[in-house]
Specification:
4 copies of one chain form a homotetramer.
Chain A (H helix, E strand, L loop, with lengths): L2 E2 L4 E5 L6 E7 L9 H11 L16 E3 L3 E2 L2 E2 L4 E6 L21 H8 L15 H19 L2 E9 L2 E2 L24 H9 L2 H5 L8 H16 L6 E8 L13 H9 L5 E6 L2 H4 L4 H4 L3 E3 L5 E3 L7 E2 L2 E2 L4 E7 L9 E4 L5 E4 L10 H31 L18
Helix pairs in contact in A: 1-3, 1-10, 3-10, 7-10
């Protein structure tokens, strides 16, 4: 369905070529200062037409707040908002009347609904993500103000160009007895997670905050564009200052909701948190994050292979994860395929497409992450406040209750 | 929370050392033949003590059905079931009274609840998965009977031992201009997805259905066990004969619910569907699954990089995905870490632990997959039946409605 | 929260004096012919300013469909819609800056949110019901087309003026041994349930489809209006042709969801289905609905004290229920009360108010009923279709399975 | 489905004649002292065989806690519990193999599921309510400890015997110009709401805390029993010390969730809060609850016609409501009706039945009320805590934010 979240909840509507796309954000805490500009900033980072690396579809994506805010402050009631669809050229898609685009949603929407929008991606269009980004921007504003939480995503690969790519040539079967963890979790990468800022990320059209890599990525995207082709990539995201204790065992572990959120973004195919797939290759003795006492008295870890989550619950360390986006399905290059009726033929899609979605996906990833943190935070508020109202327990063995993190 | 699903729903209870663990399965279609044995089969594949590769904790894990079934047929009412906890040795865990186990849930549960079970993993114990496996077995029985759906998971890596591991030594930065997809998606791997059976998988204690690889995996696990250490791995799962049209845009895409389900399994850190992370590296022209007409008139694809899902909706092809399990956190080997109170020290956990969880994770992965398919199928039933009762639409452009898959 | 429903789901936004009020309707079956006019008809029945019995606030309440419909046919995707707030006079409410209106939501919103809209009812305004009515109109269109379901509400009392009011003077303690059921369930009332139409209802400004009673009701409302006072009333609603088998035991019984829906309408305080409170007074032998065989072979009942629902599940008979609306809290007449700060004083509210809400509540009740039926229908579709795909059961005692209603 | 609640959630299983009935209670705050006896007390008030006014089925209904509690303290994890079905006599119900009991769920379950339990009420049996009562007892323990909340239900009518029944003989059409509110809301009734205790209620086998009325009720029930018939009644419930601010506009108003909860109890047909249906008959000027300042500085009301809820949100006053239970459908007296196959005939049910359910319904009503309050309280905790972490707002007009109730 088109709703995400339990206590902080976004519901979206809109297809690629209808009157507007929009969202209702329900459960926003009252008393939060909020302006349209707070939302617009992230929408503008998402909008098409930002550089020669993205689709030429030109949408200003101006947000119109409808409700839930008065005198620049949230009322606690649902925030309705919408963005008009303006630069529509439905005719552009006429080839796809006959052909389902390979690896696109054209065919599956028909299988699901028995009907599909007459042009463009319809509901599967990336314009659907506008509502998410708007909702995420509101969540993020709260998280920053109330908890100092920072959410920063960046492009970590385009095609085979990897940030801090040190994919070892040695990574073969011969390595079976090598117990070390490699690659993406290099010291440089770990340092970046601690320091990267949104401003730094936006200095690069690729949104990869590393000059040399970004240039190679740009080259890779241009190569795809010139070949009327497309290319995939990955986005990495880090969440800083998220309180310990978030995430609901059993089925709604923090990383489970995060994975759900991320794989609901169009074109995603993969998710990993912390050391991820690479971490499966090393023994526990190397992979476990030993505890240390920080200066403020809290326990913490220095290695953080866990990516800030243990047993489905945040531990107060930085949360970082990576999402894989496939290469966009819509390409102008001719493809041998079949029509809806089965007739074989050649499709060369017109329309305006992104050769690579990852630079524009960055604010979408941030938004979905903000929605997950916000929802889990509210749920944990409910419990923590409930506990605080009980009389202290005096009958338990001392090892069953221990001090909560400062 | 402890409930998963919308129309087919499982709710579980139980800690590692309480009276029993159990589940309520709600929404099971009435009229399904069901015996305790149907459930027991998968529980026995999950239970500890199956081989020298798993924990020596010896639980028979006999399931007791409480309700929802009469004369061997489901009534449509909730199915209550439980498995008693028998081989409990709470004393074994006394070291962990002082030390939170590194990378385990001990510390985060305390941060969340302010209290933790006095011994063992409590709710974070793998015994929690019994309810999932039982629920999945029931879903699976329905899916097999009503749709011929097959769900088969197997171990695809242990540490650095990969099934069909052909991790190319060429995979370095120099490859940036190589547009080919590599590794796990080899022809051998693709062939295995089509043919593998649960019987074949169970011939191997590792549950890796390839003799030579399985032997190397066994060796790797034994090496971990002898070192009082642990090792991670991956499980791959294939779903065959899943109808087209399942999955709910926008937020409940099929792969999003699948990722949610898989990352709710203890010790998971990564998920990918179809070509996954590897698929992000190749251009759309290579990655798109061109359509072909099958003999029955349906459209299909031969390459299936999409893994059976496009735009969040199943397309009728095989669905396959891979999950990364970290190396178990509990190891007997001494670890330098800190006590709950911050005092540095050395922890050498006693207790009975799996050196590697992936062989026992196989039925858990199958169960969670069955739960997702079952739930999405019921939801799509609701819509498809609703549409079938409407009068035919005659006013639409012919390209907006097209024949549904046979 | 602002979302209602499981598979057919409406989410609303909007306060009394913001830019617009609107809704997202999710889960509408694709392939339904739908125009703005289908929605407008019910909105216009709800809108203020229809007669001298309602608030003089004059809103055209024109609906703008944003998405989910193309070429006049639903796509199965969310339908976004909005109605602009036009005739706003926020200044009218300035007295209520100091005084919480007695029995209004002013005080409780502040207790809940710590902030309230600067004027009018904010989110508690009846304008919030626009989204419900729009969503209900869409559901109703489907229900009519696919199942021939009819939903008709009418005003059954205003103050002490009751339709078919034959409140027996004998109804005193002396009646304890009288086992008969009385009053509202008279033969005339039962006949009305079978025949009443929306057209008939709309012939009367009170929406009470009985000339003499309607005139007495009009008189009663005018009396309240002239006294700068207000008056309550009841609305009765009948649903015809609802299939048997809807409603989900245990917690989501049909009448439980219906009661939930009805008591979510502003100003409601009471709900009863079938014989309701009156039915509690007679013995089972008088109250039970004996079965008869209809000509089509189905079982049915002639008495229908149950109101079409037994054990929480519809039985195919007409469903009828009654909702009590209190007299509107906002009155222009002076009231002795206290300011927010506790200072006693006199409040005489300005602003434009309905002296009696029940005539305008009629389409709201119909809408909420349609939402409940639609949602339960989709949920039952899911199950019924699932069962139909199973092989027939041959092992059950014959008394456990019996033919389904035609 | 069989789950109720959002953050405090109960899921139940069990039919009348299966192995056990049980529940999983999820979301209980950790750190609550809880013993089986806390649950048993309410179960024993619900159990059959308590007096000659109830069914002779004799069940001890001993509860077995399975999980979620250690050393007498809740862990925050799900609490599994079960009660064995012991005194089963399935044969007793053989007549109902042929006949659907009039006004019972026999017929509708078949329409819904196509199959029904072979004997007794199956899932529609009152034994299903055991899980609710157990869950409610746990919620109640928390509510008492953390907020001093008291929940007391009592029988307010049996048949035409009403507590404080002063149904005026004058209540006829001639009263249209009488603006007074009458009957159930008499001063005596209002006084009872403030003072009644559970101990007082339990002094009477009818659970009507008024000697003379209780004796008349007993007489009425005995009359029904001797006639092999049954009789209905009403239960009134009061909640004291519920904080202001609970309830979620729009669709989840406090009274909407309460009505949902109450009408999910078997045999219920009606619900009203505060002045209810009677309150619809008087003008706003008489019905509005004027504000007064209490000694502690809070605003409150003396009249409380609203029943403690305004605009769907609690206002801190006592919450009181009334539920109508129909006369039990199962009677031993012969009834002319039809068989499942349509053949007319006479049914005289055997089995053990309550002639009147309201005395045993009292703890069920209390339990469902506790579940609603608990859930709404947790949800409001989430918001209130979120707001408390924001910086103070200085830019709002002073009339938009006002002090929260002490």
């Amino acid at each position: 369905m088109s709703t995400f979240g339990t206590l902080f909840r976004v519901t979206t509507y809109g297809e690629s070529h209808c009157a507007s796309v929009g969202a209702i954000i329900d459960g926003c805490p009252p008393g939060l200062e909020l302006s349209a500009q707070d939302v617009q900033t992230q929408l503008s980072r998402r909008r098409p037409g930002q550089s020669n690396l993205t689709t030429p579809r030109d949408e200003k994506d101006l947000v119109h707040l409808q409700s839930g805010v008065e005198h620049g402050v949230t009322l606690g009631t649902p925030i309705g908002l919408l963005v008009k669809n303006e630069d529509q050229r439905p005719k552009d898609y006429s080839e796809t009347d006959l052909y389902p685009r390979p690896s696109h949603a054209d065919y599956t929407y028909l299988q699901k609904y028995g009907i599909k929008a007459s042009s463009g991606g319809g509901r599967s269009s990336a314009r659907e993500t506008i509502g998410r980004v708007a909702a995420g921007a509101i969540a993020e504003k709260y998280l920053k103000q109330a908890h100092g939480i920072e959410i920063i995503a960046f492009v970590s690969s385009v095609g085979k160009v990897h940030l801090f790519s040190s994919v070892s040539p040695a990574r073969t079967d011969a390595d079976e007895d090598n117990d070390e963890i490699e690659d993406a979790l290099s010291p440089e990468f770990r340092a970046l997670l601690v320091t990267v800022t949104r401003e730094e990320v936006d200095k690069f059209p690729t949104r990869c905050p590393h000059l040399e890599t970004s240039e190679r990525m740009t080259k890779r995207i241009i190569r795809a564009k010139e070949a009327k082709d497309s290319i995939g990539g990955t986005v990495t995201c880090v969440l800083r200052n998220v309180p310990a204790g978030l995430g609901e065992p059993v089925f709604d572990k923090f990383e489970a909701k995060l994975a759900h959120a991320m794989l609901s973004i169009p074109a995603t195919k993969a998710f990993e948190i912390g050391s991820g797939f690479r971490g499966t290759e090393v023994p526990g003795s190397k992979h476990n994050d030993a505890f240390v006492r920080w200066e403020n008295g809290n326990l913490g870890t220095t290695t953080n292979w866990s990516g800030g989550v243990q047993g489905g619950i945040t531990n107060g360390e930085d949360i970082y994860f990576r999402i894989g986006f496939k290469s966009p399905a819509t390409i102008s290059r001719a493809q041998e395929t079949a029509q809806y009726n089965g007739t074989p033929g050649t499709l060369a899609a017109r329309g305006r497409h992104d050769p690579c979605v990852v630079p524009r996906a960055v604010p979408i990833v941030e938004a979905m992450a903000a929605l997950v943190v916000m929802d889990e935070l509210l749920i944990q508020n409910a419990r923590r406040t409930a506990v605080s109202l009980l009389p202290p327990i005096t009958t338990l063995p001392p090892t069953m209750t221990l001090p909560i993190r400062k």
